[in-house]
Design a protein that fits this description.
By secondary structure, this protein is an alpha/beta fold. The protein folds into three domains: 146 residues, Rossmann fold; 109 residues, Hect, E3 ligase catalytic domain fold (Alpha-Beta Complex); 159 residues, no CATH class. Helix content is 48%, strand content 16%. α7 packs across α10 and α8 crosses α9.
Length: 449
């Protein structure tokens, strides 16, 4: 046979080597080396059939055979598709794959590019029908072995969790891991308790997520917590000191962060239909959503009613609407609907100007002092008002509404603008409407003393 014919008959052979564990890979001679030498020897034994080794080595030390995400395997498949390989040699078929589904994909690629497959120790050649049959049988056993091993591992994890042992995974907010055990992280634990307490009051993960963002509080990964993340956190029995496995819960070795009564209170709220909770939250918020509820009138004495319009996008628009137009149809009274934000802003500009100036305190001192006999001089009330203006943006909606009602009797809307009727006789009692226990209350009490 001529050299040209022999060259055409040559079969380019690639040896693929893999070992699941990276143990002993740093030794001078290891499993990868043994597989490579066995493959090279096998190719040499088939030299009479025209088998010749390719220069490249395809190796995956420390990679599992349960998937195809292996750099050496990827290069092998790329070279097969490029047409530079005719035969793939492995020490045993489970070195190539332990997954029947993955192996089927590889065989499809082999067939498409007319590449055969041989095992050194199992005398299998995919070029024959009998070889294919044996290949699938042996691979089925390899997959079975892998699945049995997986079951054993899962059983061990389940047994450990039943004993309350932490078995790894994402470290939950509120804890750290030392020597394989969960230990409380004090500052994060404070955040967990605050989240539970705040949700028990607001009953809304939407509001809670927004408040966390406003306060700059982030989760373990450094990202802000979303509603879904908060739901998992609020329903996690881990914070009760328990560990779960397949729907069952067992006392954990770690300490609890949340007391049982507080956890059960939150679960009772979570059990309520989300739509009902949203309705309850909106009803609670709407009470203070309108700063001037019941205080705005036309010159003719018609009251403006707070109204919310929701678009299909879910966005809400707030207005003050004359009651006759609201109840009897638009145009009954020739007064326009007033955007709530604009009206409230205009009123607050006047209110804060009065609080900061002190001029009206001096002008109406006798009426003001009548509501608080402890006030002995105007200057104390002036300081009091200035501090109220300074902390205004830190106050909640209810506190703001209470202060405005203490200062103002009525807001009258005219064609020229708005007019405020002041309630001087109650100004001295303003300190009583500040929220107790707040920095603002303490500051005002100190200044008024």
């Amino acid at each position: 046979m001529s050299a040209a014919v022999q060259a055409l008959a040559a079969k380019r052979c690639a040896v693929y080597c893999r070992v699941s564990s990276d143990e002993r890979l740093d030794q001078s001679f290891n499993s990868i080396d043994a597989q490579r030498e066995a493959g090279a020897a096998f190719i040499s034994s088939q030299r009479s059939e025209g088998w010749v080794p390719v220069i490249d080595d395809y190796e995956d030390p420390g990679f599992s055979g349960g998937n195809m995400d292996r750099p050496g395997l990827k290069r092998l498949l790329q070279d097969i598709q490029a047409g530079v390989i005719d035969v793939v040699i492995v020490y045993k078929i489970d070195r190539l794959s332990r997954s029947l589904a993955d192996f089927a994909k590889m065989v499809e690629i082999f067939d498409k590019h007319k590449v055969s497959f041989s095992s050194v120790t199992q005398q299998i050649n995919s070029a024959t029908s009998m070889g294919r049959l044996m290949l699938n049988v042996l691979l089925s056993f390899a997959q079975f072995e892998r699945e049995v091993t997986g079951e054993r591992i899962r059983d061990k994890i389940g047994a450990a969790k039943r004993k309350g042992m932490w078995m790894g995974g994402a470290i939950p907010l509120g804890y750290r891991v030392e020597q394989g055990k969960l230990l409380i992280e004090p500052e994060e634990a404070k955040t967990i308790r605050w989240i539970y307490e705040t949700f028990a009051q607001s009953r809304s993960t939407t509001l809670l997520a927004k408040e966390l963002m406003d306060k700059g509080i982030r989760g373990k990964t450094g990202k802000f917590m979303c509603k879904q993340g908060l739901y998992k956190l609020l329903t996690s029995r881990l914070y009760l000191g328990e560990l779960g496995h397949k729907g069952e819960y067992f006392p954990g070795e770690h300490q609890a962060i949340i007391e049982t009564k507080h956890w059960e209170q939150v679960q009772a709220i979570m059990a309520t239909n989300s739509r009902q909770r949203a309705s309850d939250v909106w009803a609670q918020r709407s009470k203070y959503e309108y700063l001037l509820r019941g205080m705005v009138f036309t010159q003719a004495g018609d009251i403006y009613l707070p109204t919310t319009t929701r678009k299909s996008s879910g966005k809400a628009y707030r207005y003050y609407v004359v009651n006759k137009n609201h109840n009897m149809g638009a145009g009954t009274v020739s007064m326009p609907n007033l955007p709530a934000g604009d009206l409230e802003k205009a009123v607050m500009e006047q209110v804060l100007a009065v609080l900061r100036s002190g001029q009206m305190v001096n002008s109406y001192w006798q009426q003001i002092r009548a509501s608080n006999a402890e006030l002995t001089e105007p200057q104390a009330m002036v300081l009091f008002f200035k501090n109220t203006a300074n902390i205004w943006n830190t106050l909640g909606a209810q506190a703001k509404q209470d202060i405005v009602r203490t200062l103002i009797k009525r807001v009258t809307v005219t064609p020229e603008g708005i007019e405020l009727a002041w309630r001087y006789e109650t100004w001295g009692a303003l300190i009583g409407v500040m929220p107790k226990g707040t920095v603002g209350r303490e500051l005002l009490e100190m200044e008024a003393a």
